[in-house]
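Build the 3D complex.
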Amino acid sequence: MVANDHIDLTVEPGEIHALLGENGAGKSTLMNVLYGLLQPDEGEILINGEPRHIKGPRDAIQAGIGMVHQHFMLVPVFTVAENVMLGAERARGGPLGILDRARARRDVREVSNRYGLRVDPEAIVEDLPVGVQQRVEIIKALTRDVDLLILDEPTAVLTPNETAELLEVMRSLKAAGKSIVFITHKLKEVKAIADRITVVRRGRTVGTAAPDASEAELASLMVGRQVMLRVEKVPAEPGEVVLSVAGLAVADERGHRAVDGVDLEVRAGEVLGLAGVQGNGQTELVEAVMGLRHALAGTATLNGEQLLGRRTKDVLASGVGYIPEDRSVDGLIKEFTIAENLILDQYDREPFGSKLALRLDRIDAAARQRVEEFDVRTPSHQAPVSTLSGGNQQKVIVAREMSRPLTLLVAAQPTRGVDVGSIEFIHKRVIAARDAGAAVLLISSELDEVISLADRVAVMYRGRILATVPATESRERIGLLMAGITDEPETTEGGGE
Amino acid sequence: MILDQEPEGSASSPDKEPAGAEHFPKETAATALRTTDAAEVPGPPAGNRFIAALWSANTVTVTVLSLVLAMVIGGVLICLSDPDVTATYGYFFAAPGDALSASWSAISEAYANLFKGAIVDPAAVSGWLNGENTIWLALYPLSETLTYTAPLVFTGLAVALAFRGGLFNIGAQGQAIMGAAVAGLVGFGLHLPPGLHVILVLIAGALGGAVYGFVPGILKARTGAHEVITTIMLNYIALYFLSWLIVQDGVQDPNRSDAISKPVDSTGLLPKLAGGDLRVHLGILLSVGAVVAVAWLLNRATFGLELRAVGLNPDAARTAGMSVAATYTGTMVIAGALAGLGGTTVLLGTAGALTGSVAGNIGFDGITVALLGRGKPWGVLLAALLFGALRAGGNRMQSFSGIPVDLVDVLTALIVLFIAAPALVRSVFRLRAGRTGRLETTVAKGW
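Done.
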């Protein structure tokens, strides 16, 4: 497959160059070529005017290219200094000598001070917040003396505050003469920081823009058509309480009380947005409700019936639809066909199966129809789901969970890593489910998504609901709540870090 | 402000559709696969990745080439093991023709005997046509091949099914032994009318294996004990249990002093397919039936979907409401039953009585068969046929060419080695990397 079709990209020294494009547009492929993880079939890479052949990350680093991946390449139990040292270990007293940890620490401190990164070299990586871990990755690249830093979707995992800090770091790097390629599909950040914007679509550069281009202009350049950024919806008409959670406490894998006394109610015909930075207990809350995780205390009822302690199969069968937050881990079986994935939680129920046998004809027919109805772009409904782009994979999950009558829809990060066109489609579907009378619990760390979809917003922070506010509340207030700041914005204690 | 934008519908984007109609052509979807695979999706656990790599290699090409490579290396070994041939290499530079012709005749004779012993011996066929011998002699090689094949199909399925469920069932050997042991007890312990007896014995064998598969299954499901460890240990237990069992009073054949059980009643034996002259028995037909059943189970049964889902992604299976623990247990029970039937097939088809080595090596060979068959039921049947043929041919090769039958083991080991390392085969034959498709992706992920 041609992922990059004759792309031209020029990055000037000391420039922040945004690479904007939908998922599957070929941004990551392009950067993997630059970083030597993939080899180009045609074309060349010029660094300071000289053609360079980059065969792997080692060559790339030597050529002055560093990369911060979307998923961090850090050893969680090592300290910051040890992680930075990894792969470029220096020893005192020859190759068989003792690791020079002191020097690694010094390097980290030095780089950290020079660019205002504020990272403690002695800290254990797994204890650090995600934003700081990311800075460790940046330090790792900087200690290897790179001139060009590639940041692959760096803000996907950050809180609004952390994002602001990252943008600050990027500015100081730029001031020091480093060039940055900033890969993203978030328009606001691009406009906030980029000096130049290159838009990639379907493996081609479709245009360059200056940061003063409007969001709508950029979005349509990205998608190739006008995109509706706001979700059109009528005011909710909330009915009876469908989901009621009270005093819920849930432990995470390490035994910490990730959910620590949560009360919430979702009514029929409304969307309750559960906002919060990832890792504040949302995942554990949802998994407890879905019967995937044992709850320590509290209750969760669906139309008055206890949910806790029931098998996931029964929870799903009682009219709950569930879009899990991580589609590649929990939502889909990549090797399975689209048709199989579409019945993954209904295969043993009519009409798709009996106790013993699958009804392949019906499964096939239903898949055909849903691929059509949910606009899954694929050559065939019998293709493995791994051949789909992220957005289309997500549509498969949405199609599976939303083509049966629902009393409750639990949608966790329903549009994470999904292109603009698919976001629009999924949002419409969620609102349609709401209007059909389902209660919707929307869990999202994207503030925009929560604000545009939800009727009420509950902000979760460190295992508790900090506040429940109407969706008309200001972005700033919700953003602060997500960072754990409840009332006076000027107080600094209890900040997000 | 847009600085520059390529005009829509220009020569650079000839496949442009009407705006708003469809902005994702097919190739974009596949493009996303590459990008996502490489950058975003964490790989499955190492064990699953190993199995995935085995299956994702370009099956037919790599398998055939692995066979060829193994035969070539086998040829070298044949020359090395033949003193007459090695002697000619002593004066290689004086008369290289001697060495080459001696090597060639040794290799070709050995492989010719392998073929004659496994498939057909032209001399026996012409002998039958001329009335010098019966048709049975002409069919003898095929009969031998099928006789060796039948139990391997069962144990191969036992391992392959577990593979598909994400389990590495090293315990087919133990399950086969337990199956044979229980079947033997019913075979000589009960005296029943023909037909009914053999059916009961087969059921007993399947049950014996199933119970013995249940143990590692439930241990894995309840405690997380790794099935590789537990099944290896259970293999020893089964082996020594059988050795103990056959010397007990009431089990040991009272007319024999060596460690062998009473013979299974003739009513409990699997009927021969071609009368008394050939060994081939009903087991081969049963094994094909088992292939059909396992294929149905995997592809058309609700449990098969659960099994495959759990095997590929237990997290997603659990999220979709499947019980991973129950699936693991069920998978091991069925795998155990299949292996138990494998052991029973040997007992009822050829052995006739329990000995310490009644199950031979069929459980471990089943692992090889499942790997060669890429975990697919029909692939297992083909692989078992190949191994059965090698076994049958190996016997003739030993007696006619003096090549130790162990060469067959070396050959099978080499075949599997090459299949497990497709990159090696590709580089030996300089296959173009791009042509092997998905193999590339797996290699890129760290294989």
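Confidence is low (pLDDT under 50) at residues 489-497 of chain A.
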